[in-house]
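Hi R.,

Here's the chain you asked about this morning:
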Amino acid sequence: MKYQLIRPFTAVVLLLQAGFLWAQTNDSAKINNLSFGIDFMTHGEAMWGGLPINLHDEQEDKSSYLLGRFRLIVDYKRPGLQAHAVVQNMSVWGTSGSQALKLYEGWAKMTAKCGLFAQVGRVALAYDDERIIGPNDFAMASLSHDILRIGYEGYGHQVHAILAYNQNEENVYTTTYYADGDKPYKTMQTVWYHYEVPKFPLGVSLLFMNVGLQAGERGSEIYKPSTEYQQMYGGYLNFHHKYLTLEGSYYKQVGKSVGVSSKKAIDMDAWMASGKVTVNPNDYYGFTLGYDYLSGDDKVIVPSPGDIGLIHHDTNKGFCPLFGSRNKFYGIMDYFYQSAYINGFTPGLQNAFIGVFGKPMRKMDLSATYHYLAVVTKIDNLNRTLGHSIDLQAGYQFTKDISLNVGYTLMFGTETMYFLKQGNESKRARWGWFSLNISPSLFSTKF
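And here is the predicted structure, written out as tokens:
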């Protein structure tokens, strides 16, 4: 029998082929994906005017501070299962650091090939344009929800059902009262439906929410603790074709509203509507204009200091955006819903805006937006105009994981603004801010 020696070159080729086939087989078996990352944000603000003040105290209507936010992000994914966790610490520069690490997000999501899914844990929710439900990330601390979410996604349809039930740890002997908790409500049930029209650039969303809010006082016989329910329903439209985007929304709010003191609930009957047009001819510049209308109370609930008596409402007509990303819509300063008017009065808001945005450089974005702001409620001897706001913003992307955003806002207020904010500085508020975001991916592996 003759033996034929394999030439060295041929042997190397065969070994490489065998190794490649083994690697392909081995990679196909690696169905688990694990990654770690961090998100570090430094945020600074300097504000002059704009916040309600107490006329009986000597206060400076100005402030400046630096905030630091650190997040550790862990992701795991395999077919049928995904898990996500975000541990967060946020503190003001110079504080003792008493704010310990907290779980901002921590959830597991199970999916089926047919499009059904179930998700449970703490989730940062975001729907549509984030007007009603969004993380409000500009506020640094951001908002997340402890929920069970089940739904279906497929063939242009998305249906989500969300259930939440919150309880204070120390209230183990009762399920009635939820006070000073981490979440702004006791219970929440939400159904969201979205449909993308086939072969047509139109998306339609419908939303229904039932939110249980806490009223009363612990241990009080006069204001007994109770859960009062408020409903919101409405929809959102988005049409996008080439360089034109049209957006519109309408929401109605009914049920019960809990007042500023949280002692008593009254009927709720409020609504809002909005429309927005964005024209973006190319990648270098664009324009936007729109109008928001949010209903308001008929009268001031509590008179200004020096008056006698109280005005009691039978119905609250002031619309509340609930859990939305508020700084996105009513001027980035937004001290109409992000911070309250004096005495908690909600006179509603009209916001007519026009803006221009551009990209003068590949990594730079610029924008300027003008807002005309007015209340809805007629206030005796005062004009409805609140003022005129100008937002200037710039952003630069140094690398894929390092970015800087800066902004400056000018508010030219009126006597109406002074009356509602109770401070001269509110008529000429200025606000500057910056955010430096560093978010590298540290490690990822398959196994």
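One quick note: Residues 1-6, 19-25, 302-310 have pLDDT under 50 and may be disordered.

Cheers,
M.
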